[in-house]
Specification:
Elements: H1 2-15, H2 20-44, H3 49-77, H4 82-108, H5 111-115, H6 117-133, H7 136-145, E1 147-150, E2 153-156, H8 157-186, H9 193-218, H10 227-240, H11 242-257, E3 265-268, E4 272-279, E5 283-287, E6 293-297, H12 298-303, E7 306-308, E8 316-324, H13 330-342, E9 354-360, E10 365-373, H14 381-397, E11 412-413, E12 425-426
Antiparallel strand pairs: 1-2, 3-4, 3-7, 4-5, 5-6, 8-10, 9-10, 11-12
Helix pairs in contact: 1-7, 2-3, 3-4, 4-6, 8-9, 9-11
């Protein structure tokens, strides 16, 4: 508490100094102009990596330029300029911190870094700012005096903050090393893509575990005291996270045995059908032909029947059926249907399209046209639609009848006086 009282007294003395409020007003105006400049730069900049870095530096660098102008004017007019010096240092620190965190984001390539980039930069800048204004040491003394009881022992608030900082720093280093290892693995031409993904994720997981343990050890925490707690936590997590663990194990199985790979066309449980776009350790992402994405748990893919249209061969057979009247010359229609299919650019010439007579039904003769495509990922509906439209057009030109169901209806009339045996009379 003495440190906080001392800090409060220094703050009151500083605010009562000569020209403080005037300097604060000039700094506020300069920061407002810097914000306008940064907004203009953000609108004019593109979407490249260099443009993204420029957007992050626009505000602090514009503020530094305005602060230098304010310091120059104050110096030549004999005005106080102490706050201008501090503001310049803070803005330069903000520029450096933003660039460092931005570089870490692209070096680590972890999604959470992109999500918390601003938060991480703000925390680092706050620490640097407290050191620049000279109150960091007082805050450290206060944090060391605040203790948190943990069982029979106690730990200071500064120790907790130090431990979190150490763990975060070692994790960032581990993720950076994991990113380097992933880049080297992905560039290795001798390894299969599934093997590369599995190895990179195993390396990242091991590095994160080592980083956490190392950070706790550097912070002065005894890791052996966590063994009992870790064992109990592991048992609890084992019972409560069975499904999640099963999905992760199933994800590694899928990646290792390569039964399902990115680009395959699969159907799960006769419902979800689409192209495999992403395989993670927990789920697999499918994209259907109409643009809908399905997130399928890996456990479902391992324990269910999965239809893989492109597992061993990417070629796929398409079928379209049509009926013709019984008086149709089938020997002329079947070659015509095969010719129509051969004319389509996506239909393969080998195996060649073939037309068959399938069955004799109530309304007509059922014919089937079978054809093969080599690019099922580009969709099937468009090919079927184009073939069916061309068949319909040719049939109309050749006056080939497509029958439809017909039924005869007889109306029976009951006269008031039934004839002879009281049977109904049929009216035509």
């Amino acid at each position: 508490m003495e440190a906080l009282d001392h800090l409060y007294a220094d703050l009151l003395q500083f605010m009562a100094g000569r020209g403080v409020w005037q300097q604060l007003l000039v700094i506020a105006l300069a920061l407002g102009v810097a914000a306008l400049v940064a907004g203009r730069v953000s609108r004019d900049a593109g979407q490249s990596v260099h443009a993204s870095g420029l957007r992050r530096l626009a505000f602090p660098l514009a503020g530094v330029g305005l602060m230098l102008v304010a310091r120059f004017v104050a110096h030549h007019n004999g005005w106080p300029r102490g706050l201008f010096v501090i503001a310049t240092q803070l803005l330069l620190a903000a520029a450096v911190v933003r660039m460092v965190v931005f570089a870490l984001r692209y070096a680590i390539k972890a999604p959470w870094v992109a999500s918390f980039e601003k938060t991480i930069a703000l925390l680092i800048w706050c620490g640097v700012a407290l050191d620049i204004v000279g109150i960091w040491d007082d805050l450290v003394v206060w944090a060391e005096q605040v203790t948190l009881p943990i069982g029979k022992e106690s730990i200071s608030l500064w120790g907790v903050l130090q431990g979190c900082s150490m763990v975060m720093a070692t994790m960032i280093g581990a993720l950076w090393l994991g990113g380097l290892a992933e880049g080297r693995l992905m560039s290795a031409p001798a390894l299969d893509m599934s093997i590369k993904v599995v190895m990179s994720r195993i390396i990242k997981a091991l590095l994160v575990v080592v980083a956490v343990l190392l950070g706790m050890s550097m912070a002065g925490l005894d890791i052996t005291t966590l063994s009992v707690f870790g064992g109990a936590l592991g048992v609890g997590l084992g019972f409560g996270m069975q499904k999640i663990a099963s999905n992760y194990v199933s994800g590694f199985i899928i990646l290792l045995d390569r039964s399902i790979q990115i680009g395959h066309i699969i159907q799960v449980n006769d419902k979800q059908r689409g192209e495999v776009r992403q395989i993670t350790t927990r789920y697999t992402l499918l994209r259907s032909g109409d643009g809908i994405h399905f997130i399928v748990p890996n456990e479902t893919l391992v324990g269910s029947l999965v239809q893989n249209d492109t597992f061993a061969d990417r070629r796929m057979r398409l079928v379209t059926r049509i009926q013709v009247a019984y008086d149709t010359d089938v020997e002329r229609v079947l070659p015509m249907m095969a010719e129509i299919a051969r004319a389509h650019p996506r239909i393969m010439t080998e195996p060649a399209p073939e037309a068959f007579l399938i069955s004799f039904d109530d309304s007509g003769i059922t014919l089937e046209l079978g054809m093969w495509i080599a690019d099922p990922e580009n969709g099937q509906t468009g090919v079927r639609s184009a073939i069916n439209r061309e068949i319909l057009r040719r049939f109309r030109e050749e006056r080939i009848e497509i029958p439809f169901p017909q039924r005869e209806l007889r109306v029976l009339n009951w006269p008031e006086q039934a004839d002879g045996q009281g049977l109904p009379q049929a009216n035509a």
